Each structure stands twice: as C-alpha cells, then as structure tokens.
Structure to design on (979 residues):
C-alpha cells in the first residue's frame, strides 16, 4: 500500500490538507470537533465511566446479597441500584462503547478518511453524554428510577412510581436518539465509504457485523423510542396506552420493550463477534476459516434476533400456539451462533497460536459464551423457562452471555487496538494477570447463581431467607464479584501506565492483516492521504494488490492524493462492488451539533420540571439548530465548484442518488419514520384486539370524507414529484419550480385539513386508549408533513438561486425532497386507511 | 508497473434488484413468516377463526400453514434466483473467495443464506403440527 501511494504523483499541498483535517487542540475546538477519531475516543471513555458507575452499583448489591436477611441496603435502594445497574450496562455502556469503537476504527479499517456524517457523530455524542448525565442526576435528587431496566407497566405508571421513572424515560430517550444517529452513520459508512476494491467478499468481518448492527439498531431502538415516548405521554399528559382501566394494555409495553430488548442483546453481541473474528486469525497466523459462513451467520442473527422477543414473555399467559412458535424460533438462533463458534475453533485448530492477551480474552469468550448459549437454549424451552423464570438462573444466563459474550471480546479488542489508538504497547504481564482475575472472578460470581436459581432464589428481591441455605453460594458470588472488579482495575492501571512509560507500539505490533495497521500509531486525523486500493481480504499479508487495479480507478485515487486541500473530501464507492462513484464533501468543525444537543437537553429537562413553555423554547431551538445545520453553506459550494479534483479524478463533486451520502441519510431517516409508523399501527390494532368495542366505549365511528380528500392531496403531491424530477433531468427549471410549488400547496393543504380534523373530533387523548392512539397517529402524520414542507422550502430556495445546468446542490435537494414526498404520501394513505377506513372494513 | 486497461462500467451478469433479492429474499421471507405467525396466533386465537374447521384443522392452523408455505416459496425463489446467478458466473476457485467477482460472491452467499432461512422457516413451522385443532 505504501509503495502504491509513493508511486503516485504528489501534487498536494500537505500543510493545507493536514490543516483542513486537523483534530482539535484547544478547548473551544474540542467542543466543535467532528472528526471520527476524537469522537470515537470520547464515546469509549464516557461509556467506560458509566461502566465503572454501573460496576460499583453491582458490587454494592453483591454486598447486600452476601448473607441472608442483610440490611446493608434498604429494599428501595436495592430496587434503585438494580435498575440503574441494568440500564447503565445496557444503554450507557455496551452499545455506546461498541459504537465508539466502530466510529474510531471502522473508517481506517475500510480505507476511508472519516465517517459518513461527521456532525451527526458529534450530535450523537453530546446527546448521549447529556442523556447519561440526566439519567444519573436522579441520584442527586434522591429519585433514582426503581422500576427495573425494563420498566414494566403498570409498575412504571405515574400512580405507582415517582419522578425517577421520568428520569429513566427521558434520559434514555436521549440515549436512544444517539444510538439511532450512530446506526445511520455506521451503516452508510460501511456501505458507501469503502476503499476501491473492497468488495463485500473482502470486507473485514468486524465491518460486516457492525453494518448488520447498524441496520438492527434502526429497527430496535426506534421501537423503544416509540415505547418510551408513549409511556412518558401516559405519565405526563394522561394518555391511556398502558392503562387497563381505560382500554389500554400493560402487555403492549412488554411487546414493544422486548421487540427492542432481545435484538439489543445481539446488537451488543454481534460487534463482539466481529472483534473476535479480527483477533483470531491474527494470532492464529492464518486466514479465518469459514469467512463466508461467519458473515452469513451475522446476517442471519440480525434477522432472527427480531423473532425472539416473545420468549421474554413466556410467563405472561400468551396462547400456547404463540409460545411454541417462538420457542422454535428461539432455538434456531443457536444454529447461526454455533456456526461462528465452530469457525473460530477451526481457525485456531492446527495453528500455532500466539497466546497474547487479546487472544486470551477471545478464548475466555468462547468458553463463557458457549456456557451462556447452552443455558440460553435451555430457557428457550417453555416448560424449563416457567421453572426458572425470575430466578437467579436467568441472572446467571444473561451475565454469561453479556459479560462472557460481549465484555471479554471488548477487553480483547481494547488490548488489540489500543496500541493503534495511543501508539503505546500495554504490559503483557499485567494483561494476563487482569485476564485471569476477570475470568476466575466472573465464574465465581455467576456460576453459583445457576444453582441458587434452581434452589429458588428470586431475582430483583433485596434479600433472601436463611432457610434457602444458599448463604455460602452467595458469599462465593460476592467474593468473585470483587475479584472481577480488581481485574478491571488492573486493566485500568495497565492502560494508564502504558500512556506514561511503556514502549512505542510501532505501526503494526501484532503483524495484523487489515488496513488500519498500515497507518501510523496513533493515526493522522485524515487517516489516508491517498485512498488505498484493496485487492485481498488480508491486504497487509498479501503483496501486490495494486496489480489488480484498473487504470481508471488508479487515476481516481491519484487525483485524491492529499486532495482536496481546502475542504474535506472523501471518495464514495458503490455498495456492492466498491467502485468509485463520487467525491463527497464532508463538513468540518462546527458548534451546531453541540447547540442542537443542548437544545434537546433543555426541552427534556423542561418536561421533567413540567415547565411546558420551556419545552417549547427548547423545541424551537432544536428546529432552528437543525435548519442552520442543514442549510447549504454558500462558501463551501463555491469551494467545491472551483475545485479541480473532480475533473482530475473524473468523478462528480455534486453527486445525486445512491452516489450521494445525504441520499442515504435521507433513506435512514425515512426508515426511522417508517418504523415509528409501523409501531404505532401495531399499537392501534393491538389495543383494538383487546377491546370489546372499537372505537372504545361510546365514541363515534371516525369520518372518512375529509381525511380521504387529505390523502388525495398527498397523492397529488407524489404525482407532482414525479413531474418535477422528470423536468429536473431535462433541465427545465420552470417546470421544476412549478412542481415544487404544487407539492408545497398540497402539503400545506393536507396539514390544514389534518389539523381541522384533529381539532374537530369529539374526544381528547385522555378519554381512553382509542383516543390516545388516534391522537398520537394524527400528530405523527402532521409532523411528517411539516418536515416535508420544510424540505420543500429549502429545495425551492436552492432551485431559485441556482442555474440547474451547472453542478449544484439543487438536483440533490429536489431529489431528496421528492423521495420524502413519496414517503409522506405512503404514510398519509396508511394513516387514512388505518384510522378512518379500517373500523368500517373490519367492524367495531 | 503493469496495469490492466479496464472500463469502470459495471460488468454485471445479473443486475437490477436480483443481487439484493438473492441476498435478502430469504431474510424477508423469514420476517414475513415470524410476523404473520405472531399476528395469526395472537389475534386468530381470540377470533372466531379458531372455531372454523376444514378437514379437521382449525382456520388458525390453515392460515399458519398458508403463511409458512408462502414464506418457504419466497425464500425458495430467492435461492433459485441466486442459483441462476451462480450458473451465469464462473466458478469460484476454492480457497480464493476474496478474488471472486462480487456477483459470484453475492450469489454464493445468497444460496447459503436462503437455504438456512428455508430450514429455519420449516423448523418454526413444526409447532403448527401440534396445534392443528386448538390454540
């Protein structure tokens, strides 16, 4: 690679190029940073702070459980601690850490200079940080949530729980937003920013898994987002979604929560398998056996993990038919997980592995995850699950899966990649000591819990009777927990010492095979001056990949050698074959993400304080920030228009369609909106199913005439979009303007009609669950249309300003606004049919 | 250095949506199967369909059988498209899957993945055999 790079003509101005990509050095710059490397590090460091807090809570709980009838913690405090511990580890540590690792490593691994949407990365980080702080600030008010990390209704309803649950709901809503932004970021980066030649069959397995996880998060986190918002609405403005007295349904919460909750396990587990797949071949010193099977298994897990949510509800009284269908589905996921385990064992089998610290963690992972997987198969069987449900057996099972299956690979990955991030090697002796402390401590802690569970020790209860005769087992578990904690401390000390006085790591201390190890340690902010070419699955192990490269691609890369040097540009390639498609502008440092996230925080805190005027102020500030964020920057457009790099590379600088990153961002946004609509429609029919009458109580049937006209307006807007895009491709500016104006009028007309209908219905959201779901779906659709109006206005403004014969941003804006109009129309028709037609078709 | 003078135009053996369908068709079929099974079991068992019998089998079970057959057919169609794609591309040299043309690799992955999904759908359908008279 380096040979290939030096052969290229270097016409760049290195100083300017490096300045454009410079990472922050001062505090104000630090606040405005958008580069993937500092932000990835911040995600990882912040998540480890939360990990330490969650771990401390766990140790306090183990002290409480060390002996029977202990009074070290009161039951209320114990409830708060297990809630905070679970929520911290699931929401504030595992997923953000893995996202941070991906944000840092992924671009280097796939040969990109940054991730797809740098400002979104910064926004995601700030929202995550503020959400986590908000969540933990509940301790300061002595109002920590105490309803479990699952917050089952009706326990979490306002009648039975205090403001702590609002902290849980609102803090985690912010974290969910961060998760969704990172998911869009990661998926688009893997699909569109791979180096030329990095086809799907050469994609590192970590990138495969993280791409699958990105798509999973879009569905899982969005579902949870809807659930938490609905519960918060129940608590603050008296909607009735989960209130059984007014037509709501408590089990609806469980369905929504576990539709997120089970994939969440695999959202954490899959990147961990990606880490394992990167470490095993390096230390086995041979290519991965069954690369394709591991990749396929990851995709299969990505799908099947969404079909297992009901196995968390085996004890809720669902029909036996449902239970058995989901039991079968739950057993099937072992097929894919087992395939991966066998592939790693096969890679190590017959090799002469180097038993370094990263590999030790991987071996520990294999042992522990197999145990956790086996107990997972056991609890997937309905009769067995009934026996151990809500006992410590389940606690043991999921800790084997989550600590064994996720945390051990995470530590392995840290020992593996930290030398790249810090430029320093870590002490192997301390690494081995830390590993064995963690491995032995973990098994001492959690293996006895299987037996305790069989003997009847319930989970989520602050103490137990001495008559159960499990004091010794509990004491062993507590000692093990402290040993585990010491193991983590050894890692921390090792890390700090490595920064202080341990030797330089060099560029590739492990003799690894993937692209990131071709860079300096630590790498430059831009990672690659010249986009690399990838001709093999192991680019650093197999020489001469440039010989496969065709001359056109080579010239494209040559043109990008240290270029562009007055704006941040990155090569975009196609999703399947990684052929160069365009040079995409990436934004530089900006305070807007920080302001936008602060505005989100203000609105959220205002909801907590019930200061509804301030909620409006915060929301308005969010909207203004987003407008400022998304509004095209004239200076940047001029720089791009003047740039020669596009002509030299033969690639567009103003790409449209699938060659454009914003187009993919819009696709992600529309996918999120689509999932929200899908979840709301599910809630509508679920509530209907368990109602004696629909609309509930004595509410009148909905009218369909005006809503029908409104839906027709949206279909007209969709038709106008088709006309506008056809005109855009023929450069007929007047027609494009006419089409945009027509779309605008249709959307505004639709909004007006929706508001008229909404305000005219003879009930409120408080009356019963039907009123609540009707109200929420109507407002959802109004918001969708309102965003459409905003995008349409932006497109109209650009078309008015620009000559559409020249390379400009208006074609992309017109295209994106049109795509959004299609979604708005589809969504509007679905809402019309569900709310206004279905009650007539199906009958009350 | 000798470099080959190739066009950057895609050299697709099968284009359009075929690669995506051959990759993801089985997964989409599985999604349809699990969701339809959930809806039919949860909703159907509360509706009169559980009391309708045809050939001694409840209306609910017939719906589940139909959903399962449709899902298997869809995953099978995806596997067939992938297999057709593989026929149209040269063989992959064993041990050199990373040197294969992307189309070759996609169809290979598609065949494996779709067969796995067919197996999973069939396995998930087994419980229907035990609940053909009751919910």
């Amino acid at each position: 690679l380096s040979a290939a790079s030096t052969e290229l003509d270097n016409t760049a101005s290195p100083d300017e190029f490096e300045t454009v990509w410079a990472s922050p050095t001062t505090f104000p710059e630090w606040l405005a940073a958008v580069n993937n490397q500092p932000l990835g590090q911040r995600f990882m460091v912040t998540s480890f702070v939360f990990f330490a807090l969650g771990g401390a809570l766990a140790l306090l709980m183990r002290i409480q459980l060390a002996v029977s009838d202990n009074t070290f913690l009161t039951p209320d405090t114990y409830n708060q601690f297990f809630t905070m511990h679970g929520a911290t580890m699931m929401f504030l540590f595992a997923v953000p850490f893995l996202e941070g690792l991906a944000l840092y490593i992924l671009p280097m691994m796939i040969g990109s200079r940054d991730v797809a949407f740098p400002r979104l990365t910064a926004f995601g980080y700030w929202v995550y940080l503020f959400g986590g702080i908000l969540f933990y600030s509940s301790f300061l008010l002595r109002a920590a949530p105490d309803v479990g990390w699952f917050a089952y209704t009706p326990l979490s309803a306002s009648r039975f729980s205090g403001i702590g649950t609002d902290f849980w709901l609102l803090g985690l809503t912010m974290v969910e937003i961060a998760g969704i932004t990172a998911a869009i970021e990661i998926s688009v980066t893997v699909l569109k920013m791979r180096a030329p030649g990095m086809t799907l069959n050469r994609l590192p397995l970590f990138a495969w898994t993280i791409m699958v996880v990105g798509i999973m998060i879009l569905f899982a986190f969005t579902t949870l987002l809807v659930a938490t918002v609905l519960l918060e609405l129940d608590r603050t403005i008296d909607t009735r979604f989960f209130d059984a007295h007014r037509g709501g349904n408590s089990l609806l919460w469980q369905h929504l929560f576990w539709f997120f909750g089970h994939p969440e396990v695999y959202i954490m587990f899959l990147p961990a398998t990606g880490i394992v797949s990167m470490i095993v071949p390096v230390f086995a010193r041979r290519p991965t056996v069954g690369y394709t099977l591991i990749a396929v298994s990851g995709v299969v897990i990505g799908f099947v993990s969404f079909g297992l949510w009901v196995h968390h509800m085996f004890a809720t009284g669902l029909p036996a038919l449902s239970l058995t269908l989901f039991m079968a589905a739950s057993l099937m996921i072992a097929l894919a997980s087992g395939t991966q385990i066998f592939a790693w064992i096969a890679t190590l089998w017959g090799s002469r592995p180097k038993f370094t610290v990263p590999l030790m963690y991987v071996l520990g992972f294999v042992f522990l995850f197999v145990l956790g997987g086996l107990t997972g198969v056991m609890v997937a069987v309905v009769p067995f699950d009934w026996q151990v449900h809500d006992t410590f057996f389940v606690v043991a099972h999921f800790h084997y899966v989550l600590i064994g299956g996720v945390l051990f690979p995470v530590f392995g990955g840290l020992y593996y990649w930290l030398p790249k991030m810090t430029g320093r090697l870590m002490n192997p002796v301390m690494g081995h000591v830390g590993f064995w402390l963690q491995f032995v401590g973990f098994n001492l802690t959690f293996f006895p819990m299987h037996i305790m569970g069989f003997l009847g020790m319930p989970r989520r209860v602050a103490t137990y009777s001495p008559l159960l005769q499990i004091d010794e087992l509990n004491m062993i578990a507590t000692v093990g927990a402290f040993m585990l904690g010491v193991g983590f401390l050894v890692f921390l000390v090792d890390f700090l010492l490595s920064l202080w006085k341990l030797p330089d790591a060099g560029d590739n201390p492990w003799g690894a095979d993937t692209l990131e190890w071709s860079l300096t340690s630590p790498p430059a902010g831009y990672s690659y001056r010249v986009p690399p070419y990838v001709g093999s699955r192991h680019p650093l192990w197999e020489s001469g990949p440039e010989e496969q490269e065709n001359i056109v691609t080579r010239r494209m890369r040559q043109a990008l050698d240290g270029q562009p040097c007055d704006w941040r540009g990155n090569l975009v390639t196609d999703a399947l074959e990684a052929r160069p498609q365009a040079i995409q502008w990436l934004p530089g440092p900006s305070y807007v993400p920080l302001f936008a996230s602060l505005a989100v925080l203000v609105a959220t805190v205002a909801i907590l304080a019930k200061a509804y005027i301030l909620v409006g102020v915060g929301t308005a500030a969010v909207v203004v920030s987003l407008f400022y964020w998304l509004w095209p920057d004239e200076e940047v457009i001029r720089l791009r228009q003047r740039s020669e790099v596009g002509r030299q590379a033969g690639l567009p600088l103003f790409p449209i369609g699938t060659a454009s990153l914003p187009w993919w961002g819009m696709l992600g946004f529309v996918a999120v909106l689509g999932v929200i609509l899908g979840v709301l429609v599910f809630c509508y029919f679920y509530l209907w199913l368990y109602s004696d009458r629909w609309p509930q109580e004595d509410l009148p049937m909905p009218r369909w005439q005006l809503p029908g006209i409104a839906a027709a307006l949206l279909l007209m807007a969709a038709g106008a979009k088709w006309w506008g895009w056809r005109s855009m491709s023929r450069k007929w500016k007047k027609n494009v303007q006419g089409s945009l104006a027509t779309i605008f009028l249709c959307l505004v007309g639709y909004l007006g009609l929706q508001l008229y209908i909404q305000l005219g219905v003879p009930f409120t959201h408080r009356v019963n669950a039907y009123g609540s779901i009707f109200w929420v779906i109507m407002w959802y659709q109004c918001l969708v249309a309102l965003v459409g109006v905003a995008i349409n206005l932006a497109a109209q403004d650009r078309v008015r300003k620009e000559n559409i014969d020249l390379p400009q941003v208006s074609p992309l804006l017109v295209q994106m606004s049109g795509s959004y109009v299609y979604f708005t129309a589809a969504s509007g028709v679905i809402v019309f049919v569900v709310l206004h037609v279905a009650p007539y078709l199906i009958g009350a | 250095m000798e470099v080959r003078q190739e066009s950057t135009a895609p050299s697709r053996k099968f284009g359009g949506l075929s690669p995506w369908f051959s990759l993801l068709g089985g997964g989409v079929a599985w999604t349809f199967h699990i969701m339809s099974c959930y809806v039919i079991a949860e909703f159907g068992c509360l509706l009169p369909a559980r009391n309708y019998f045809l050939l001694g089998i409840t209306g609910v079970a017939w719906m589940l059988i139909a959903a399962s057959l449709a899902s298997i057919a869809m995953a099978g169609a995806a596997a067939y498209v992938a297999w057709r794609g593989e026929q149209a591309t040269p063989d992959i040299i064993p041990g050199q899957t990373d040197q294969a043309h992307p189309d070759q690799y996609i169809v290979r992955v598609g065949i494996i993945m779709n067969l796995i999904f067919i197996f999973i759908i069939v396995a998930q359908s087994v419980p229907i055999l035990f609940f053909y008279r009751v919910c």
